[in-house]
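S.,

As promised, the alpha-L-arabinofuranose run. Input:
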Amino acid sequence: MRRRDFLAATLAAAAAGLAPRSTRASDSLVEVLLNEPIGVIAPELQGHFTEHIGEVVYGGIWVGENSKIPNVGGVRKALVDRMRQLHAPVIRWPGGCFADTYNWRDGVGPRTARPVRTNFWDNDPQLCHAPDGPQKYDPNTFGTAEFMRFCQLCGAQPYVAANVRSLTPHDFDEWVEYCNSPAGSATLAQTRAADGSREPFNVMYWGIGNESWGCGGDFRPEEYAVEFRRFTSWVPDYGRKLRFIGSGPGASAQDPQVSWTRGFLAHLVPGRPDLLDRLFGLSMHYYCGTTRKGDSLEYTPDEWYQMLWQANVMDSLIDQHWQTMSQFDLDHKVKLVVDEWGAWHRTTPLGPAYLFSYVPSLRDALVSAITLDVFNRHAEKLAMCNDAQLVNNINTLFLAVEDRFVPTTIFHVFDMYKAHQGGRSVRLVCDAPEISYRGEPSGTRVAGGGAGEGEEKQFWRLAGSASLHDKRLIVTVVNSHASDPSAAEVSLRGGEAKSVRVTVLTAPDIHAHNDFDHPDVVVPQPQPTTVSGSRFAWTFPPASATKLEVDLV
Ligand code: AHR
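Predicted complex:
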């Protein structure tokens, strides 16, 4: 059956209360092992990231109190409403690379008196084509108090990245003092009160630099270990243990960069195992994608699989870094924090100021679904993960230009997957025929100008994750096949379904996407069903993410 016909038949069958015809003969198995717990899925695994880059902060989040765009104290209201819908757990700020140039003092005090500073990203060639504005010259209107207010409005925890490259530990201590000192105590508590918050912000998560091997200072791992010690010694904690996150590697599909993880820990831990208590988490960044080369909306079926394969590399990266960490931390006190991840494509600018922005498609939705499933399956290893970035950037959940605002395909994945937050991840295994496709050509181009043919490769057809919440089981499954449905038997080992609610995110065209003029092309659709029992048939549509919400007997 062709993909389009299949979708029509499935929807018609569903509307008639029937299982789609193709479910009667399954070629695949999705098995949930309810008695094989992995770990609790920290809500923070569905965290976000916002940087002073392009139109993320200015334009995306901050529109100003006097804007015609509906806002709450200067913050875009539509964004806040959607973040609340997601139960957004945590937001990282102010970078990214920007963090290691940022002087937090520039962003406190009366807004009109704050200095204008050249933004870190001003060096990016794309900004040459943009008019002067906050993307090049940051007015510091959005500072610490504004970010905290944004977090409070969203119901999210703040996660603040310190400047290790160009400020001192003393500056860091004072930023913590500004944020966390008790009401009416230190002078900086009074500065904070004048900025609108008498009560402390109680920021718990602090990143010690960002990409310290690169834009964050070009440190070697042994040098960064020294900086980490200096920055985390005797930071004022006001009776609450702060959660310091060490700057980790920038992994790629070709090179996991475990040498950074090993080098850093080898210089931090020996002789001072107590220092592990100071390291709440070690970060890792992984961007998949065509990294600035390929278009987010134009791709062949082979390129579809190439991208999904890259997203899936996250699985082995987590394993590899975890193994390396275990050499220094046998008890695994320290968790991994994937505080930047996403699909990075060539910018398709909404305007030159919109650095790294593109319109995400159904392919990016599946990249995100695959990644969130991977996180769930590694729940015992991960403390936090942050999608890069929230709005108008890489792997973005929202596009926002002036008063136009649209949730992307990626937003809808987060909306479906929020049901996993706080659940106990249990093992899920899939058995389905693999898909053959052509991998990326090894050279860039062959003579004659066309792209060379890559080797034949295989990719899985079905994968997912499952979480238990008392008598409710959440199962999410990606069918990666670009055109074929997958008729599966769903087996609940150690449980029985009383009833099942199904939601599917897909579209007839693998290039489908939401934009300002077509906001609802890719949105989750409930699928009526009457399946129950410990084994039942379900057909996963092509190119889809599916959520099964199971009420257990
Ligand atoms: O997310 C964009 C940039 O990618 C971040 O600033 C940096 O940390 C990473 O290299």
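Residues 51, 95-97, 210-211, 340, 388-389, 394 surround alpha-L-arabinofuranose (CB under 6 Å). The chain has a mean pLDDT of 92.

- D.
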